[in-house]
Design brief:
Helix content is about 25%, strand content about 30%. The protein is of the alpha+beta class. Mean pLDDT is about 75; it is low at about 1-20 and about 30. It has 3 helices and 9 strands; from the N terminus they run E-E-E-H-H-E-E-H-E-E-E-E. It has a 3-stranded antiparallel beta sheet, with helices on one face. Strands 1-2 form a two-stranded antiparallel ribbon. A two-stranded antiparallel sheet has the order 3-6. The chain starts with a strand and ends with a strand. A hairpin with a 2-residue loop joins strand 7 and strand 8.
Length: about 160
């Protein structure tokens, strides 16, 4: 990867842009797996059913949210404490479009057992074999770190 600096004439700020270096991905040989935190095209959940004419990304997000909130179990301590907030669960989606179970980690926890519950939900997705459209960089499928925020609110 190369980083090229760009200078903004009007604001006087400094911005860097990632340039795709095709030499880093030779097509005739296997390259060691690189982990990306972001990519040109981020991964999307592969839909099991699709409504005709609707936005694919929106449908994928809705299906994932439906799964999460229908399987979310409030830990007993959190009900009595009225804990609410947002947790962030981080995991890797491989170049094959699968969740790597060893990579599941809660990077933002609000306590009350919700961090473990968030990890359980992503592990459940991995165990059920949920397929993702993998991230791409320079036209090649690559593994990428995915951060999923889950809002917790007791009603």
């Amino acid at each position: 990867m190369r980083w090229l600096p760009f200078f903004l004439l009007f604001s006087g700020g400094f911005v860097s842009a990632q340039v795709c270096n095709l030499a880093a991905f030779p097509k005739d040989q296997d390259t060691p797996e690189m982990m990306f935190n972001t990519s040109e095209v981020m991964p999307l959940l592969l839909l099991k059913t699709k409504d005709a004419g609707a936005d694919y990304r929106k449908q994928a997000e809705q299906q994932m949210l439906h799964f999460i909130y229908s399987n979310l179990r409030y830990p007993p301590i959190s009900r009595s404490s009225c804990i609410s907030g947002t947790i962030v669960v981080s995991f890797t989606i491989t170049a094959e479009g699968l969740i790597d179970p060893a990579s599941i980690n809660c990077v933002r926890d609000i306590g009350g057992g919700f961090g473990d519950e968030g990890k359980r939900l992503i592990q459940l997705m991995a165990d059920l074999g949920w397929q993702w459209v993998p991230a791409t960089q320079c036209g090649k499928a690559v593994p990428v770190r995915f951060n999923l925020p889950i809002r917790i609110r007791l009603e």
